[in-house]
Design brief:
Elements lengths: L6 E2 L2 E2 L19 E5 L4 E5 L1 H18 L7 H15 L9 H20 L20 H4 L4 H11 L4 H12 L4 H8 L3 H29 L1
Antiparallel strand pairs: 1-2, 3-4
């Protein structure tokens, strides 16, 4: 079956400007039903709606967790294929994005293992980095140079620190949501966040020291 976008009628789902299209090849799924906490009613949750509302979140999460540019389209597509397969299991006990993060995390880790990547770009090579696939939504929030620096600094963290840092500092999730996403006790979350912040700050200090010496 050829790849295609989910669509409402004849309108394809939008993707961030400047990105290559990532389309899904899945069969229609019965909608999941989950508890609307505000209305106290069961509401339908369709994979098409999840895709449209959360594509940007999954893309930036995969990139921030270390997915290589060359594999990013494949990672994002694989995440939503898993979502399509497992959506009926989602009962709303966790936040939807917490659930999506957990799926994205596992897919990214699998791709990184397959790639056998040993390290990310060195901080003193940032000037040579090219990140032309960054979505315009994120480019509007930070300058391209800052985005490249962020990715390079994240590459200095190990997997555990990187994941908790992305959730806490970049996605601004609550402690309980992070605990749910990573399968941790809440007390461990706060300890990991503290250590991750320290590691990120140390990487930033090393970068600034290198920059100062090169001037």
């Amino acid at each position: 079956m050829p790849l295609r976008f989910f669509s409402h009628g004849s309108r394809p789902l939008a993707t961030p400007t400047g990105m290559r299209t990532t389309a899904l090849s899945v069969a229609p799924a019965a909608p999941a039903r989950w508890q609307d906490r505000h209305e106290g009613q069961r509401v339908a949750l369709r994979v098409e709606d999840v895709y449209e509302a959360n594509f940007d979140f999954v893309w930036r999460t995969a990139r921030r967790l270390g997915a290589l540019d060359a594999h990013l389209d494949d990672v994002v597509q694989e995440v939503f294929v898993v979502v399509q397969r497992r959506l009926a299991e989602f009962e709303g006990r966790a936040e939807l994005r917490t659930w999506l993060f957990s799926i994205t995390r596992h897919v990214v880790r699998a791709h990184l293992r397959q790639s056998a990547r040993s390290r990310g770009p060195a901080l003193d090579e940032i000037g040579e980095l090219v990140d032309s696939r960054a979505p315009s939504a994120e480019s509007k929030l930070v300058h391209d140079e800052d985005t490249r620096l962020l990715y390079a600094l994240l590459d200095e963290l190990d997997e555990d620190k990187r994941e908790v840092f992305v959730l806490s500092e970049l996605e601004e999730m609550s402690g309980p949501a992070i605990a749910e996403a990573l399968g941790l006790h809440l007390s461990n979350v706060y300890a990991r966040v503290r250590v991750a912040r320290q590691a990120f700050d140390a990487a930033l200090r090393r970068y600034r020291a290198r920059t100062a010496r090169s001037r």
